[in-house]
Amino acid sequence: MNTLSPLPAVPDDGAFAVSGPEAVTAMRLQLLVATRYKLAFHLPILPSSILSSSDELAELRRIAIAGRGAEIRIVLADPAAAMRAGHRLLDLAQRLPSALQIRALAEEDQGAQTDASSWLLNDTGGYLFLPDAERWEGRAALKDGPGQAPLLLQFEQIWQRALPATQLQALGL
């Protein structure tokens, strides 16, 4: 449920440049809205401005409860920093641990060029890629399977090496 003003029109297929916090945020929300069951994030940091708006959290919740195949995977370089900051996404991850999984970047992947980049991949061929997560510039597409494929392959490799972020799990006391 998008309560923001209408999202700006973007091409249905093919990659295009995104620049500026508003454009990146709008594109991230459009990708969440377009997602059916599967979502993957690679985030070196999880600032409070990312994945914490009511609209984004509502879309993440919708995806997480979409059905048996629902899967949201997030790789963070420093999950403890997100926990210390009390990020709103962590509450959702603790309530829906079977669908929303968070892992910590493996030691061998830290310091790599990919460690500084950020990307979001969905199951409809869409992606948002920021080569430097601290800058609001990159490329995106709503449907671009060939453009998404190398990012998805790289994410899968990083995900396999990543370690579960056990410090973020609810204690269940």
Number of domains: 1
Helix/strand-derived class?
alpha+beta
Helix and strand sequence: EHEHEHHEHEEEHE
CATH superfamily: Endonuclease Chain A
The largest sheet is: 8 strands, mixed
Mean pLDDT: 87
What spatial form do the alpha-carbon principal axes imply? globular
CATH class: Alpha Beta
N-C termini distance:
33 Å
What order do the strands of the largest sheet run in, or round the barrel if closed? Answer: 1-7-6-5-2-3-4-8
Count of separate DSSP helical elements: 6
Give the fraction of residues assigned to helices.
25-40%
CATH fold descriptor: Endonuclease, Chain A
Characterization of the model:
This protein is of the alpha+beta class and 173 residues long. It has 6 helices and 8 strands, in the order βαβαβααβαβββαβ. Strands 1-7-6-5-2-3-4-8 form an 8-stranded mixed sheet, sandwiched between helices. A hairpin with a 6-residue loop joins β6 and β7 (137-141). The model is unreliable at 1-6 (pLDDT under 50).
Topology:
Layout: E1 16-19, H1 21-34, E2 38-43, H2 54-64, E3 71-76, H3 79-85, H4 88-95, E4 100-104, H5 113-116, E5 118-122, E6 127-130, E7 137-141, H6 145-161, E8 163-164
Parallel strand pairs: 2-3, 3-4
Antiparallel strand pairs: 1-7, 2-5, 4-8, 5-6, 6-7
Helix pairs in contact: 1-2
Task: Please provide a brief summary of the model.
The protein contains six helices and eight strands.
